[in-house]
Amino acid sequence: MNPIFLAVLLSVFGTLSIGYLVWSIVGLREVLTKSKDLRKDVDYLNDSLGKAESQIQNDIRKFHEESIVYTDDLVENIQSDIDRRFDKIYQKFYSDANEKVREE
């Protein structure tokens, strides 16, 4: 093979190799920059998700506490109503029994 042709061929391949290397490095830097930006976005989304989950848990806990208070109030009202009705029945029964005893 002709030495000049070989030198030109090696020069062309060397230039292409260096160009490919520079192109690869620039591409890797762009990918690294984009991956850092994506990582920031992912971290932001994770923080937002954590805050949303925390808010949902707080809302559920608050609803649960309010429902317990409401249920306790409702049970107390029902019990007092039942007690009041039994008191009326007892008073009626006791007064009727007293009237029968007085009659005899």
Features:
mainly alpha
Quick structural gist:
This protein is mainly α and 104 residues long. Helices cover 97% and strands 0% of the residues.
Detailed description of the structure:
There is one protein chain. By secondary structure, the protein is mainly α. 97% of the residues lie in helices and 0% in strands. The chain is built from one helix and no strands.
List the helices and strands and how they pair.
Layout: H1 3-103
Cα-based radius of gyration, to the nearest Å: 44 Å
The largest pleated sheet is described as: none
What is the 3D shape?
rod-shaped
Oligomer: single chain
Q: Pairing-aware structural class of the strands and helices? A: mainly alpha
Average pLDDT works out at 91
Strand content: under 5%
DSSP helical segment count: 1
| Share of helix, binned | over 70%
